[in-house]
Specification:
With 133 residues, this protein is an alpha/beta fold. It is built from six helices and five strands, in the order βααβααβααββ. It has a single domain, classed as 3-Layer(aba) Sandwich (Rossmann fold).
Length: 133
């Protein structure tokens, strides 16, 4: 199974794994699963850190790609076809977060299971989103 971490789950996996569900922790440790972190996640971390909405003492946003690879996870590039078609993602709710929507669209179009506990994400399962939580 190909797993794609949403931004919160990526940060929790690194800094506070107890915040992940037991199922998510198990999946991240399963050797049959490949774990991916999108460049969209690094963009979100950098942007929110720059706005003062996110910080971890002693860690800069630029370090997170290395943290991902040091954890044995793969960095997933945003494919041009996925980026350019992201506007096609339906809006089953008033969910406007562009980072979330791009991660959801990536997961749907590139056959990932999205690791997320976000309560808005299940609305997208009717559109093909698979969630691990």
């Amino acid at each position: 199974m190909k797993l794609l971490l949403d931004t919160c789950c990526f940060l929790w996996a690194l800094h506070e794994p107890a915040l992940l569900s037991a199922s998510a922790r198990k999946a991240l440790k399963d050797p049959a699963c490949s774990v991916h972190v999108s460049v969209v996640t690094f963009w979100e971390i950098g942007l929110k850190a720059g706005l003062g909405k996110l910080s971890f003492e002693g860690v800069s946003p630029e370090e997170y790609p290395d943290f991902a690879t040091e954890s044995g996870w793969l960095v997933h590039s945003l494919l041009p076809a996925t980026a350019s078609s992201a506007g096609r993602l339906p809006r089953p709710t008033d969910h406007r977060d562009p980072f979330d929507r791009l991660l959801i669209w990536t997961a749907i179009n590139e056959d990932f299971t999205l690791v997320s506990g976000d309560d808005q994400f299940p609305a997208y399962t009717v559109h093909g989103l698979k969630i691990c939580w």
